[in-house]
Design a protein that fits this description.
TIM Barrel; 2 domains; 7-stranded parallel beta sheet; 7 strands; binds flavin mononucleotide
């Protein structure tokens, strides 16, 4: 995830039970791009012991191939093509989710990438641009080029991050493709992941925002699958997680105000499981520097016996994370 899946974040998550593999923030590819250093660092130095796929976003085939050659020199598990980013600034350039409008372009790009990638080549896609009318055509292209794995976010590009997820469309992709399919979109808890595995027939689940909110989700699902009682975090565990984010994911060279802004991006999601009335979210959004913010976390997550209270498994109903720069507009390409 853009601006989230940094080297430091992967380590913080890794300490709480890493996913089976990670996917980097996307590498932006255009004629003068070179793989961004901080994303390369997340491939090389994450130290979680898990495989990492490098994700590309772009549409210029020669430059995509050049970038693939550069990335394949790194210890990547494979290359993932982004066909899902819904930010208008991105899709208007016919990259990310914009590619879904043009199956002929997808055919050309995916075919060329397949030829250039001897190992694992995966695709992350949505179910369409503004509807599912081209979904079958797109799935047929991916099948024809023998993509190794497809992750399907069960929303259209126009559905952004908030429309209802169409799990039946994911089940349709599972039936249509010869390769494994990973389901994505609002997989909010380990119990829901198990339910969706059954319902969609997918081979696995990808968690995005729900891993920011609940970094134990991967370990919990592993426990559930092995018939063990899943780890149940309490608010004191959440306070430890917040401290880890403050210490490692907020650049210490920034001002206290800037670091607070950065930490709030994570708290925006974490707060959805703290209290049903949203008091924590309300209070933390009003803090203006890091000292105030951590004091607010102490008050809401530790004091008055709160530390022993359970952290909700799924977001409380009615609470919403405020759209961030990435979910609302996306990054400039
Ligand atoms: C802040 C943020 C950044 C994201 N960046 C990427 C990205 O770089 N590549 C990608 O494939 N998806 C990206 N996504 C989308 C997620 O991978 C995921 O598909 C989406 O959030 C739905 O899953 P969820 O309900 O578990 O969050 C991003 C999502 C968020 C919230």
């Amino acid at each position: 995830m853009q601006d989230v899946t940094t080297t430091a974040f992967m380590r913080v998550i890794g300490r709480r039970g890493a996913p089976d593999w990670f996917v980097t923030e996307y590498f932006r590819v255009h004629e003068s791009s070179t793989p961004e250093k901080h994303i390369v660092d997340s491939v090389v130095n994450h130290g979680t012991g898990r495989p990492v796929f490098a994700q590309l976003i772009g549409e210029d085939t020669p430059h995509m191939l050049r970038t693939v050659r550069e990335l394949l020199r790194l210890p990547v598990a494979g290359i993932d093509l982004n066909m899902g980013c819904p930010a208008p600034k991105v899709y208007r350039k016919n990259v990310g989710g914009g590619l879904l409008r043009d199956p002929a372009k997808v055919d050309e790009l995916v075919g060329a990438l397949r030829q250039a990638i001897p190992g694992l080549f995966t695709v992350k896609m949505r179910i369409g641009f503004d509807g599912t009318q081209r979904f079958d055509e797109l799935l047929a292209v991916l099948a024809r080029h023998q993509v190794d794995l497809v992750t399907v976010h069960g929303r259209t590009v126009k559905g952004l991050y908030w429309s209802e997820v169409d799990y039946s469309a994911i089940a349709h992709a599972v039936r249509s493709l010869p390769c494994p399919v990973i389901a994505n979109g609002d997989v909010a808890s380990a119990a829901k992941a198990s339910r969706l595995l059954e319902e969609t027939g997918a081979r696995g689940m990808m968690m995005g925002r729900h891993a920011i909110r609940n970094p134990w989700i991967f370990a919990q699902w592993r426990d559930l699958q092995l018939g063990r009682a899943p780890f149940r975090p309490v608010l004191a565990d959440v306070r430890d997680y917040v401290q880890d984010l403050a210490d490692h994911c907020c650049d210490q060279a920034m001002t206290s105000e800037q670091r607070a802004g950065r930490l709030k991006k994570f708290l925006n999601f974490i707060g959805l499981g703290v209290d049903a009335d949203g008091a924590f979210l309300h209070e933390m959004r009003r803090c203006s520097n890091m000292e105030e913010l951590l004091a607010c976390c102490d008050r809401r997550l530790l004091q008055g016996g709160r530390g022993a209270e359970p952290y909700a498994d799924e977001p409380y109903r009615g609470l919403v994370a405020r759209p961030t720069r990435e979910t609302q507009q996306g990054c400039e390409l």
